[in-house]
Amino acid sequence: MATCPQAAIAEYPDIVQDVLKINDEKILIAAMAIGYEDKEALINSYRTPRIERETFTKYFI
Length: 61
Description:
The chain is α+β, with helices and mostly antiparallel strands. The protein has one domain. Helix content is 13%, strand content 16%. The chain is built from one helix and two strands, in the order βαβ. Strands 1-2 form a two-stranded antiparallel sheet. It is elongated. The two termini are 20 Å apart.
C-alpha cells in the first residue's frame, strides 16, 4: 500500500466532520489517501523525508 497527502479534503469540512463524527471544535486541514501506487508513473518515484507515523497520526473510529 502507498499513501498520498490530500489537502483538498479541507474544502469539504462539513461532509468530512459528519462522516468521521468530528465536532466543530476541530479543524480538518489534510488527510491521507491509501491505495496501490502505479509503479510505472514517474511521479511516484519522488520521495520526501518522513517522520515516524506515530508522531502525527490520530485514528477516528
